[in-house]
Each structure stands twice: as structure tokens, then as C-alpha cells.
Design goal:
This protein has 451 residues and is α/β, with parallel strands linked by helices. The protein contains 14 helices and 17 strands. Helices cover 37% and strands 21% of the residues. GO terms for molecular function: deaminase activity; formimidoylglutamate deiminase activity; metal ion binding.
Length: 451
Amino acid sequence: MTRLHFASALLPSGWANDVQVVVTAGTIAAVTPGVAPTAGDERHQIALPGLASLHSHAFQRGMAGLAELRGDSTDTFWTWRETMYRFALAMTPDDVAAVATLLYVEMLEQGFTRVGEFHYLHHDRDGLHYADIAEMAARIVQAAEASGIGLTLLPSFYAHGSFGAAPHAGQRRFICSVDQFAALMAASRKAISKLPGANIGIAPHSLRAVAPDELAAIIPLADGGPVHIHAAEQVREVDDCLAWSGRRPVQWLLEHAPVDQRWCLIHATHTTDDEVAAFAKTGAVAGLCPITEASLGDGIFPAREFLDAGGRFGVGTDSNVLVGVADELRQLEYGQRLKLRERNVLSGGAGASTGRTLFAHALAGGAQALAQPTVGFAPGVRADIVTLDAAHPSLAGRSHDAIIDGWIFATGSNAIDCVWAGGHKLVEGGRHRLRQTARERFNASVRRLVA
């Protein structure tokens, strides 16, 4: 049993002072506000629930910054993919484990306590599956176990290049038949079975990569778990989908797939007003990845319109070019400000804190998208806790919602003090206990891959 005492903590009911939290076997056993610290309490100043990165491609952390040299032609998402394919084709299972381990260490240091790993780097470099078809998934599990982050594994089904076209040669490590994917799912379930708190869903990659009959065949493999799919990330994708079906990607999914609260549509950047309203009504989550969407030139999701329609969102780190809770939420709001030429666009109303509103949506949306029924400081909930450094200059003198505003919009990346995931204290003084070892393994792999 561990007893923690926080001078200020964000509870489901709002901010409270002098909060004692008792943790037993990785779960919050009791929350008592308004009590003085007692002997044996570990004392901290500011506590928040940990958030989920609901969308991650871990292997891409290894190529962060390697696609910033402009080619002779227009540089877009589609040219960036060529760099990604080359990098993916070079990685061994050991490389994947090394890269994912450092990434998950960095996520924890930056306030993410759970990750939704949209995992599509399945096979060997020749495109044939390993003796254990879930070899690469097992390396993701290994990285999650080493780092301590909570894991929702989302094996991705990828069968075609673009709307029925043959796969690109660079995609050969991603490709599965429906039968292969069923075997992959079974093996992946086995791989996560011994990792406490881990769960699994499925991720049909996109309508570009999955035919309608295949989508219908694989959805039951989720077995009630989450279903994630990329949709409408790029204008070209929308145009190609219109040519293929006469429908836009989000429109097609809403008309032909059983989209409900289990689903998460990743990006959904290019959506019409009608699609926004219909999407919001399903109760599905919009998986927004603002830093990656900016990095790849995707565009800006109509977040204000979606929230006004009652929509739900969470945030993900996607390509992992930069990792941080505050970074994603800040970029989300700043994108709206640039688009609309207003301030505090996503605050929700006059006098409301933008930071608090963003945080609350991301907490709830991330939990829903990764099938975590409850989050936050409440009995029976997994103990995922983040404390902030009250001595940080951008937090000094702040209280309650002003703390979150200061963290998201003014602190940079060094405001986090300690992090617990599943009741285990993994980060202290802003540093994960595995940071140095993880960096050394990551650097050794990436030096070889880059060379």
C-alpha cells in the first residue's frame, strides 16, 4: 500500500485541496480530500490524472527529424511516406523494441500514462511473417512492460495500396490477408495476456488499405474491443475515395460501417459540416494528432464545430516526432487560433479555462477510445497520476485551472515532476528510471539504421 498526499489535485468533481490518495495493487483504493498529511504519506503539491496517447506508431520515433530535407518536387505527406517506408524496411525486431522502449519512457516523462499502439509493422523485411506471426507485437509488449506504460495494442489490418490497388513495395511488411490477420490477432492476444492492465482492439488501417468485405470480416475480431481507423487525413485521400465510391471517407464509414462509441476515427481532418454533425452523433471519438498533422501538412480539424455538435476527442502522438501532453493540446488550440484568427477557441464559453477544457476532453476521449471505463482519482481506478513542479516559473502562484493553463501554454516540456502508471512510480524529478539505458539502446539502433 502507498499513501500519497497532494496539496492540490484535480478530482472528477473538480479541484480539491489536501487530498490523500491510497494506492493498493496498482489501483486507487481511497481518495480523501480536506485532510492534513499524516506520517508515512508521500507529499506532493499538484496532481493530475495521467492521459492516454490514443494513437501511436512507435517505430516512427526512430526517424523523427529525418524527413525535413525538401526534395525537387512538392513535399507532402505522400513524399514523407517514402522516407517512412525506407526506414520501416530496415528495422529488426530488436530495433522496434529499442525504439518503442525509449518512446514509452518519453511518453511517461511527458505525462502520458497509456498508449494506443496502432501497430502495422508486422512482418520480416521480405514481407513473410515471422515464425511467431506476432513477433513484432511481442516487441511492443516488451517495450510497454519495460517502461511501465499502460498498453492498448491495436494490430492494424492492411491489405491494399490505395482503394484496391496493389500494395506499394514499401508496404510489404504491413500486408495481411484476412486469415493471416485472424492468426495475428490470436497471437497478439496471447502476447498481451501477461501484461497487467493491457488490452487489445483492432485497427483497419484506412479505407485506402481495407476493402469493404475485409472490413466486415475483421470487425468481429475486435471481440467488443476498440476499433480505430485513419480517415480523411489528406485531401488526396478524400478525392480518391470519392472516385472509388462516390462518398468521402468519413461519409462512407458512417453509411457503411457500424461506427459507435467503440470506434475512433483518426484525424478526420477533411470533413464537411454534415459529416461533423453525423460523426458527433455516433458517440465515436475523433483521434486528433495535432503535432503530426502539422508536421505532415495534413490540415486543421474543425474542432470547434465538432465540440459544438457534442463530439468527443482524444489526442495521440502518431509519428512521435515530438512527444508531450502539453505540446499536443497547445498545438490543437493554436491551430484553431490560426485558422479562425481568434483566441481561446476551444474553451467552451466565456470565463472558461481553455487548458482545463482541453485536458478534460482529452482525458475522457482517450479513455473511451482505449476502452478504459473510468479514469481519474476515484476508488477502483488504475492509479495513473502525474505531479507538476510547483516551483516552475510558469506555475508559481497559480491555483486550480490556472495551473493547467500555465502547464499547457507556458511551461515548455519540463514541468512534470513525478509519474505513476498502474501504481508504480516510474518518473521522479522529471526523469524515468530507465531513461539512460533506453537512450543507449535507442541510439545504438538508430545509428545503425541511419548509416
